[in-house]
Amino acid sequence: MKKNSMLRVEGISVSYGPVRAVDNVSIEVNEGEIVVLIGANGAGKTTLLRAILGVDKAQSGKVLFLGNDITGKSTDRVAKSGLGLIPEGHLVFSTMTVLENLQLGGYHNPREIDSNLESVFESFPVLRNRLDQTAGTLSGGEQQMLSIARALMSRPKLIMADEPSLGLAPKVVSEIFDILRDLNKKGYTILLAEQNAKKALEFGNRGYVMETGRVVLEGPTQELMSNPEVRHAYLGSNV
Amino acid sequence: MEIFVAQLLNGLSLGSMYVLLVLGFNLMLLVAKIIQFAYPHLVVLSMYVCWAVLRYTDNMLLVVLASVASCIVINIAIEPIFRLLAKRHGLDINVSFVVSMSMALLITDVMSHLLNYGYPIAFPSDWVGKSIFSSGLIAFSAGQAYALFGGIAAVVAFFYLLYRTRQGRVLRAISENSLLSSIIGIPIVKTRVLSYGVAGLLGGLTAVMLARLLGSASPGLGDFVGMKVVAASILAGLGNLKGGLVCGLLLGVAESMAIGYLAGSWSNAIAFMMMLIIMLIKPEGLFGIRA
Fold this sequence. Notes:
Chain A is an alpha/beta fold. Chain A has helices spanning 45-52, 75-80, 98-105, 113-123, 125-128, 140-152, 170-185, 197-203, 221-226, 228-233; strands at 5-16, 19-30, 34-38, 60-65, 68-69, 83-86, 158-162, 189-194, 206-211, 214-220.
């Protein structure tokens, strides 16, 4: 059965001055999938996600989301069309309360805020008791959960998560991955950029390996895991 | 003691006008990331609008509407210029400062060449009003009451908008992190325009109250008020709304005290000496920079 394509990136390139951060990259994410982008720090994963969302402008190439060309559109319009990015570094509005952060996430569907809040609390019961707390006073793990919850408030069609495990304790990392897996079971399509190749490959259905701005390998995660190059470069040769 | 009370009342009513202008100025700084130095000049221009409308009607509501409408429309009309600048230079508040200073000069020149032949304008005496309370040296005019109580009402409404409404939440979100705001789908340009609009609304109301408080205006008033607004904002810490509230009042009171106890013309020097001293002790302002 051919699955519906949700996101199609066709040969995009992004440069910062003379540095080509993303070089002619094409990826595809189908409905219901978990797709992982792995690669070392500086391989271009974050830039790729930012370019998809229109934060960084692509010099060439095309981005199709749900069949529509979204290349060069403003970030807020792309986000409104159903692309939810969970940015790197558990970013929250730190001077605002947890509730305000969630309300901001639901900016485009004010009428469904209450029902969306309820469904978000099912995945993140810890947030329910913290509604009036200033987001900046939450722990790193809680901020990451808030960041994910805030993205869910907009009912995105595709969730893009950028290094959600970065800087968090191993136990919290497992929790975050459990939550993401759970969201996938509930029907969310996920594109995950992750340095932790082992965790990412165990987690995803398909994967892309990035090196210095290019996609060097792609395929089902099972295949990538048994690929000698991947094992050597990302999983440690003794795995 | 009587002088003190009299000057305190004067200072508070003048200070509440500074407060409103500091709030509008800081809102644009926080949300649109610009220093809009010409904002007080626009407010003075709206005082001219009040004056012109008053020649045809003394309907208070019409005067307020005209003042508010003119200030909102002109302030929003300026916005694309700053947007274009940001596109070319990035969000550089220094660029916006220089550009808005030229706008301020332009507005001042328009007033001094084209409006009332450059002469100061005077508002009708019943517009300022008789004193509604007096005892010895202490006199509280209707105009002062408008400025003080109108100012308080406007400040309360402003903070209600900012902290209790959906649009206010969005304004605060952009002021804290505009990139994150756009990532979660908040329309940046639209919200920035909204900040110009809210500042324009505050400015238009201030224009009416200033007219009732001062009873006159002149082309140079924009520079005069503009310096004070920038001074109070820097004293508080740029972009610090609650600090601006305190420092606006403080500046008004300090100025009035100088008028009461020293030769009046020293009031400006005192205000700026205060700023100099505080800047030397606390470069980030009394309450800390938020922009």
